[in-house]
Amino acid sequence: MLQNNQILRYIHKLYPAADISLLQGFVEDNYKREVLKKKTLLFSSGQSNTRHYFVEKGLLRLYILDRNGREFNLLFAKEGQVLGDLATPQPTAYTLETVESSIVYSIDEKHLQEFSGMVSGAANSSTDLIRRSYLFLQKRLVAILSKTAEENYLDLRDNHPDLIQRLPQYHIASYLGVSAEFLSKIIARTAKM
Length: 193
What we know:
This protein has 8 helices and 8 strands. The chain is an alpha+beta fold.
């Protein structure tokens, strides 16, 4: 089963000493496999979300709405990545939506904590994952505040070319904090680079 189940491979990568046969039963019992259409809302701002999502196939986006209803993309998660709201189970400030038809495995906070207790080293690894997420968000915040939209676009293009191909331009523009028209100018200007 390990060869055929992406989430078990992901868990095994994070926790190589873990008993996969024990984890296989836990995954089957506690992770909910969901096949989702494009533009499916997984949770919305104001809801009390208690689930975390592992992406087997597809692409998700986490975004916020300003008071005028304008969307600002904060994060994207593609195959092999996990996304949720760490403030669980508090009402969330975010909305999580599929950008493409997707297959995800979701787990609630209670079972995620149970999982951490089952696996030797899971607490350290979970802390490391949270630390890496925090560092990513810090870098993203610094980039938003200190770099131009063009510099941020070039970083995205150079470090995540697959996202440039998979995302509609309006999502990229929202992620960069610019209009779609301005993004078109950036793309035209940087195409020559």
